[in-house]
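Researcher: Go.
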Amino acid sequence: MKIKNFQIKNLKEKELLAYETGLHLGDGSLQLDRKNKVYRTIYSGHSIDDRNFYEFLVPGILRKIYKKEPCVYFRRNENTIVVHLNSKSAVEKKIKIGLPVGNKLKLKEIPSWIKGDLVNHFLRGLADADFTVTFKKNRKGIHNEPRIEFFTNNKVIHKFALQKLIQLGFKVSSEETYQRVFRDYRIRIYGKEMLNKWIDEIGFLNEKHLPKIILFKNHGNCPPHLSTNERMRLALSSNG
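Model: Structure:
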């Protein structure tokens, strides 16, 4: 398994926008109040597992696309890191390409320009926000069975991701469940072959995923219940 290093500096403008659109539909939101001149894009993630991603990489992406300086802060008494960008032009651009203000359940469709090779960049952004990589136990109790998972309550995003993954040749399972008045849509991708295909064709930029994959690559398994920092230390020592 060769782990590709996807870097934002190597992406063209539209590829970067496709990635950021996927990221937005995962962890982002738009706030708009024209009367009070509020034009804000907000991203949030876990203050430990997602820290480097949202403290450094996401602000760099926003600077490159929108030519504005975002603000990063941590919410008190919460394990949350927040990136917000106060920019009228950024909000108007996002609305123009079809992203909703407020609740993302108002999303009518994925922007039509996300097609061809741009789909992979969109999926990578969505995955960096909302996908998980886990390694389930085999019969001997060893965590060595890869699983990539995506949970969402947004039917539009689920349908698009499922269709595109199938078109790209991924073997996926899809499930729809009900939790009280809400629907939950799930996509699962199983096995080492599909993990290799994901890494080769789509990849990740959020480093929280990579230590798990490196540990699996080097040791054939990935211990559960470790923090991203703990996995990173083990991964770096195993590479050394």
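Model: The chain is about 40% helix and 25% strand.
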